[in-house]
Amino acid sequence: MAKKSKLQIIPLGGLGEIGKNMTVIRYDDEMILIDAGLMFPDEDMLGIDLVIPDITYLLENQDKLRAIFLTHGHEDHIGALPYVLKHLNVPVYGTRLTLGILEGRLKENGVNSSGLKAISAGESVNAGCFNVGFIRVNHSIPDAVGFAIRTPMGMIVHTGDFKLDYTPIDGSMTDFRRFTELGNKGVLVMMADSTNAERNGHTPSEKTVGAAFERAFRTARKRIIVATFSSNVHRIQQVIDTAVEYKRKVAILGRSMVNVVSISLELGYIDAPEGTIIDIDEINRYTPEQLVIVTTGSQGEPMSALTRMANSDHRKVAIEPGDTIVISASPIPGNEKLVSRTIDNLMKLGANVIYGKNEGVHVSGHASQEELKLMHNLVRPKYFIPVHGEYRHLVTHARLAQSLGMPKENIFIGENGQIIEFTAEGAGFGGKVTAGRVLIDGLGVGDVGNIVLRDRRQLSQDGIIIVVITMNGETGEILAGPDIVSRGFVYVRESEELMEEATIRVESALDRCLYGNGRNVEWSAIKSGVRDALSRYLYEKTRRRPMILPIIMEV
To answer: Would you name the residues annotated as active-site residues?
Structure first.
């Protein structure tokens, strides 16, 4: 009996979370990948730098993968590629700015970029049995696209991250006509951005931020420092335009900001009159009222330029009373405390800080409810999969689709790793594939897991106790110790009584282990006995559970 053909959509990241976007589209034995992003660690991921999707499924099926397609150049959509492309040798398609930013990331990580292939909105690419058309959309970065993916089973529309901006900075509006044409021809399934599904109304135009910059520049008497996302090229362009209007020079600060601005200038996505942009080392040649500094750090990241300025430990820029600081971003969920602390520190140094929704210095790059409704009405898909958002965003977007008349059974709120299948008979959930998160810590990829994170949390909360014992390997006689070392648990000089009693408890545990068993006991049993006895005593006296590490030195 012949095998039935089926189309599968398999999210490996981006569902139930903000970031880490990655989706497989598979038809029989051929598949393509949409985006390969990262996310930043949660507060409890101590020491972790980045989080990327688990690509086990891709590695198991790499002979079937025909190409990778990128919607835009934000880290949550391209940030995992320096790690993914070390293992997968496939062409990567994206627009010029997206690939320009990606190429810089690949060079930093020593990854070959020869497989990058630039394509423009309005063009299409064949990849196996798939034909992928690029559709221009507005977002908070230029050159963002959605996809029209023609498959043997029907058309898939993927909106990418988008908003409907009627006055875009670069004059290029979302291609309503193309989405309408697809809707008229018939769309099997649409996957649409859900980030702002909870927000009523319309997302304001990026141009409204320019008016807020103009107000801030008009009233500023000294230096102006603007903090925003390095990839928000349209925002940076507006800063430059306003600086030119007020005859100020612009210095760029922060490694990622310098890289993106350099690439955008080279490719023509940022326009600056000659002499407007200066090197950060030249700022001392100008008076404060002649300067604008564009920097990273809008999220209060501890090592970012703005945070170091706020803490008075930046090598090149010191905040001075009267400086105007514009934080042109809203805090990512979880970063609110970091941003608040940075604002407080800047104000303590005498700066005038402009931030928050009421000041108009930031707008979102994602569609709100009325824009999502319009997209649904243009495309009119048979089935719908909300993507790019936490679970509540997906549910809200699903309900919005229902309010427009889509049957509930035609909407699939998926999870990472869950297969959504389409056949000639209909659609439904299939099985599951391996999906999850891989933690990046320094040069280590995936070598830190839940057990290591648990140990780090315990160390950060209650510290560590090290018990050192020197023993004769043949007779089991204790030659030295036990010596107890405390780190992050108690200050030994102020807790002598506690530590003396702890030493007595360890000695008693050693006596029980050694003399009760004729000294033929294994080292592991001695360590376990010491750990248990000491743990019980310390919890009884302090209600803390430090990590206890017995070390037996054999001579």
So the answer is: 193, 366
